[in-house]
Amino acid sequence: MNKRWLFPLFLQILCLFAPLVQSAKLAIVIDDIGYRTKEDSEIYALPNQVSVAIIPVAPYATARAKQAFEQKRDILIHLPMQPQNSHQPIESGSLKVGMDEQAVAQLIQSASRQVPHAIGLNNHMGSKATTDQQTMTYLMKALVSRQLFFLDSKTAGNSVAYQTAKKVGVKALERHLFLDDSNELADVQRQFNAAIHYARKHGTAIIIGHPRKHSVAVLKQGIANLPDDIELVSLSQLWRDEPLAPPKPFIMLFDIEPALTSVEPYQSVPLLRGVPKE
């Protein structure tokens, strides 16, 4: 082969593989929106790829949902769910183990009215509720009827919420890291850096935080200085990319004679496109 055609050929091959190289995706969700005016405002000043999860009974729930919708920001219903500790306080309008299917459906209907324009739902607390199969089945059926997706906040390691969502037909995602389990500035910064590392390793990282002073400071700086190989994405972008089930292989059956090039002795046919010969 003439050497002068080697470089153009190399470029053609490189172009074939270029689309396969993609930035790692980072999605950020801020829980507990709807209680505090100042902190909520700081979250809403962040890029609109940052999603907000609004507690339905919060005093500013509906107003915050409308504001987020105007910003074209993804909105989740941050639904209180029963924790393991029976003495732990929980907001009214929470999902509890033992509720029947109709009660769960009515609860989601009410929450949707309080948080308009929501595209999905995630759990607030809920380490007992998300481990109960029957409760999660009722919840996912209610989400299907309202065309909402589900984000498992993973407050319980043995949560069955994600698997149940998949079985029922709800598009679902899982939280990978918490930003601010510790409210110390150094710890919050460490968790944000961990999310960057996780995204690079796995292709996607979903991190959940809260409207707190140090969290806002870390997010402002971190988002403004994201590495070139990390893309800040909305939760809905990941939701749209999440298949309900693995795609089946595409198989075509032809009831015709095979081409001559597929039958021995094989016939050589010149390429219609390719590197020209001298």
Tags for this model:
278 residues, alpha/beta, TIM Barrel, 9-stranded parallel sheet, 9 helices, disordered C terminus, Divergent_DAC, Glyco_hydro/deAcase_b/a-brl, signal, Divergent polysaccharide deacetylase family protein
Fold and architecture overview:
The chain has one domain (24-238): Alpha-Beta Barrel (TIM Barrel), CATH 3.20.20. Helices cover 37% and strands 16% of the residues. It has 9 helices and 9 strands. Strands 1, 2, 3, 4, 5, 6, 7, 8 and 9 form a 9-stranded parallel beta sheet that branches. The N and C termini lie close together (9 Å).
Write the layout of secondary structure elements.
Blueprint: H1 6-17, E1 24-33, H2 37-44, E2 51-54, H3 61-70, E3 75-81, H4 101-114, E4 120-125, H5 133-145, E5 149-152, H6 161-168, E6 172-174, E7 177-178, H7 185-202, E8 204-209, H8 213-224, E9 230-232, H9 235-241
Helix pairs in contact: 4-5, 5-6, 7-8
Q: Kindly, what is the distance between the CA atoms of the first and last residues, rounded to a whole number of angstroms?
A: 9 Å
The total tally of domains equals 1
Q: Which fold name fills CATH's third level, the topology?
A: TIM Barrel
User: CATH architecture, please?
Assistant: Alpha-Beta Barrel
Please state the average pLDDT score. 86
CATH superfamily: Glycoside hydrolase/deacetylase
Count the DSSP helices.
9
Number of strands: 9
The CATH class is identified as: Alpha Beta
Question: What spatial form do the alpha-carbon principal axes imply?
Answer: globular
For the biggest sheet, the summary is: 9 strands, parallel
SSE series: HEHEHEHEHEHEEHEHEH
Give the % helix. Answer: 25-40%
Going by helix content, strand content and strand pairing, the class is alpha/beta
Estimate the strand proportion.
15-25%
Work out the radius of gyration. Answer: 25 Å
What are the segments in which pLDDT stays under 50 over at least 5 consecutive residues? 14-20, 244-258, 269-278
